[in-house]
Amino acid sequence: MSFWNKLKKAMVGEAPETEPVKNEAENTEALEQNPVVEPVKRSSNGAYKRCRIKCGSRGWGGPLEIEPTDDKNLIYSVTGGGIHPVAQKIADLTGGETFDGFKSNADFSKIAVAVIDCGGTARVGVYPMKGVLTVDIHPTSPSGPLAKFINEKNFVSGVKENDISIVE
After folding, report:
1. Distance in angstroms (rounded) separating the CA atoms of residues 168 and 165
2. Upper half-sphere CA count for residue 153 (Cβ side, 13 Å)
3. Which of 63, 78, 89, 145 is least buried, going by the fewest C-beta atoms within 10 A?
4. Any residues with CB less than 8 A from the CB of 76 and at least 6 apart, and which?
């Protein structure tokens, strides 16, 4: 199913189609090419940590504070190239679990923050519309048909790794 069909289904609230189950040989081959990376361990008391994400150069919105919970622990990377370094840094600081949104799907209610690379009007508004805090690596501002869902409390853009810090 194409990206646009998946996006259309997500916007109207239908569950995306699941991918067919692979046989064991295909799974083994996929693991050899993309080894499973253990999630970052949480602090010694078992709690997640909080990080602050400010807008980058020419960016807009925020700052956002991200603190995963047991029910909402995914640092969702929807950048097309695996786990983006911004998503990885958020996971490293908070103890959240990175998740590649292009390789699989997760329920919006499990996403602590979505890291996107949209300079246009589609993904930039979908996650705020669904109630998900959104970090865009491009310096964008609200635009397009979903702009009404984007505000400074749920969206920040132009973010680079040095725009993310731990909240003590």
Report:
1. 9
2. 4
3. 145
4. 87, 99, 101, 106, 111, 112, 113, 114, 115, 132
Return the structure tokens found at 144: 């397009």
CA dist 13 → 7, 77, 83, 139 (Å):
10, 20, 25, 28
Question: Which one of 118, 137, 146, 159 is the catalytic residue?
Answer: 118
Alpha-carbon distances of 154 from 65, 127, 163, rounded to whole Å: 10, 9, 16
Instruction: Kindly list the averaged pLDDT for each block of 10 residues, start to end, along the chain of length 168.
Output: 61 49 47 43 68 96 96 94 94 96 92 89 84 94 90 96 94
55 is catalytic: no
- Please state, in angstroms and rounded to a whole number, the distance separating the CA atoms of residues 95 and 41: 6
Amino acid (1-letter code) at residue 34: N
Task: Tell me: cis bond preceding 145? Omega within 30 of 0 counts.
Answer: no
d(CA 7, CA 102): 12
The secondary structure element, H or E, covering residue 125 is helix 123-129
